[in-house]
Amino acid sequence: MSESRSERIPAAERREQILDAAARVFGERGYAGTTTDQVAQAAGISQPYVVRMFGSKEKLFCELLLRARDSLETRLRAALARPEVKALDNQGLKRFLGRAYVDLVGEGDIVLPLAQGFLLGHDPVIGRYAREGFLDIYRLLRDEAGLSPEEVRDFLAGGMLLNTLLTLQMTGLYESDETARELLACAFGEKLDLVVAPTKAAP
Amino acid sequence: MSESRSERIPAAERREQILDAAARVFGERGYAGTTTDQVAQAAGISQPYVVRMFGSKEKLFCELLLRARDSLETRLRAALARPEVKALDNQGLKRFLGRAYVDLVGEGDIVLPLAQGFLLGHDPVIGRYAREGFLDIYRLLRDEAGLSPEEVRDFLAGGMLLNTLLTLQMTGLYESDETARELLACAFGEKLDLVVAPTKAAP
DNA sequence: AAGAGTGGTAATTGAATGATTACAAGCCGA
DNA sequence: TCGGCTTGTAATCATTCAATTACCACTCTT
C-alpha cells in the first residue's frame, strides 16, 4: 500500500505496522493459511524481521487476538457510555451495539483475526486464547450491557453471521448475485455500504 | 477407531471411509491446518491412497463441502416435510428447523467442514464452492420454508453461532467454566447433551 | 571518531507436506 | 494357471515455510 518511507523506523511504530498488516492477511487467509512472508510483504519488510519482532508466528497471532478483543471491548464500552442508550430497551440496545460492531468491522480488518481464531479450538494455545476472548465478550454484554443470556446469544449469533459473510467474501457477489445482494442488505442493513464498497481511501 | 478389517475393501466403500475421516479432521483443524497424512491415519490407510483416490487435497475438501451441503439440505427438507410443521407459524418453524440442524450436528462432524469452508472466501476455487453452498441454503429457507429474509438471516445467524461454539471447542469447558455452561445451555437448549457429551458409541 | 546500540536484510537450514512413481499382493475371469 | 485388473504401500521428490544465523548500515553518545 504505502512505500512512503524507505528509512529506518522505530521499533514501536514498526510493530504497529506489522500488526496492521498481519490483521489483514490473517483475517483473510486464516492462521494456518498465512505465511510469515505474506505478512512481511504486506508490511513492506523482510520475513525474518517479522519473526524476530514477535518471536514466532504463533505469538504474533495471539497478539492479534488480544488486540482484536480489546478493540471490540473498547468499542462496545464506548457505545454503552453514550447518553442515548439510556432511553433504549434491551431490544434497542442490541441493535445499537450491533451497529457499533459493524462500524468497527467497516473501519478495517481488526476483528477478522478474531473470527479466524474461533476456528482454532483444537490448538492448545491459540484455542485457549480464543475461548477466553469469546467468554470475555459474553460477560461484557451480560454484565455491563445488562442483556439476558438469550439476548447475548442473539447478539453474538448476529455477529458470527457478519463475520462469516465477510470471511466468505460474500460482499464480492453484491453486484452480480441477486440472492447475495438480498442477504447482505438484510444482514448489514443501513451499514451495508461500509462493507460492500471497502473504503478506497486515496490521498 | 475400527481396525476390524485389514483386508482389501472395495473402492466405493473405502471412499466413504475416507470422506468420514476427512470430515472429522478437516472439521476440527480446518483446510490449511490439516495434512493429507492426518486424514489417511484417521481412515487407517496410507497417505498416497488418499491423494490418489481424490486427485488432490483440494478436490477432497470440495467433495466434503458438497456432501455437507447435501446432508444439510436433505435434513432441512425432511424436517419441512413432517406433518407437524403445518401447525407452526414462521417463528415456530424457525425453532423446529433449528432443532433439526442441531440434530444433524450432533450426529457427527458432517457439517463442520462447511463451517471451515466459510472461512476460505479468499480461495479461488474453494471460496466459490462455499459461497454457492451458503446461498443454496439461504434460498432453500426462503423459498421452500417460506421464511422472510429477516427470518432466514436470524436462522443462519443462530447456525453460525453453533458452528463457532463447536469449532472453538467451547463444549470442552462445560464442566469447568460457569460462563461457558450458561452460554452453551442457552445456545443449544434442550439438545445440549447431544453436543456436550459426544456419543461414545461402544459395541 | 570510536564504539555500542538499534533497525534491518540476505542466506540458509531443517522439517513438513502434497504429490508422484514404482512396485507388491490379492482377486477374478477365461 | 495365466494374465490383467484392483487395492494398497514404501520410497522418494520438489516445494514451501518458520526459524536461525550472520552480517550490514545507520545513528547517537561520549
From TrEMBL, chains A, B:
Pfam families named in the record: TetR_N (PF00440)
Source superkingdom: Bacteria
Keyword Isomerase recorded: no
Q: Show the Gene3D superfamilies listed in the entry.
A: Tetracycline Repressor, domain 2 (1.10.357.10)
In the record, which residues are listed under signal peptide? none
Portion annotated as DNA-binding = 35-54
The alphabetized UniProt keywords are: DNA-binding
Taking every annotated instance into account, which residue ranges of this chain make up the domain HTH tetR-type?
12-72
Q: What protein name is recorded for this chain?
A: TetR family transcriptional regulator
The organism is Gryllotalpicola kribbensis
